[in-house]
Design goal:
Elements (H helix, E strand, L loop, with lengths): L5 H19 L6 H20 L2 H22 L20 H25 L5 H28 L2
Amino acid sequence: MGDITPDQARIALTTVEAARRGVAAEVGLPRGYWWAMAAAWMVLGLLADLAPSWVTTIATIAFGVGHSIVAPRILDGRHRTSGLQVSRSVANRRIPFVVIGMLIALVLLTIGVALGLDADGTGHPSVWAGGFVAAVVGFGGPEIFAVLRRWAHA
């Protein structure tokens, strides 16, 4: 070990840090999570417009319970793929907060879009708002999550 020059040590440390960043980039949620969220969003939008309010309430509670059962396993972002499980030291502890913040923002977006469509006189505003947010979640969830992770330094 005494034969290593400072330049070699610097290169080795740079290589190790680049590898760590590559592994940290694997932190995230499985693609199936985003599509399941999109499907649930669409179903809740349909129920909000087409079913009695008690059905929508029960479905919303069931969605919350289902998410709370699945979330502890994947919400830390350490199981995005089956090929790699990121260690806790690499996965930032802020990741669950980023996911929860994103979900709250999506709920607010859904409500805002539905209220705007309803004020405009659009038929079935909850269906349209749910569909819009479902498309955002399904197609853009991982990318939005990656941006939010960068902003939150998570």
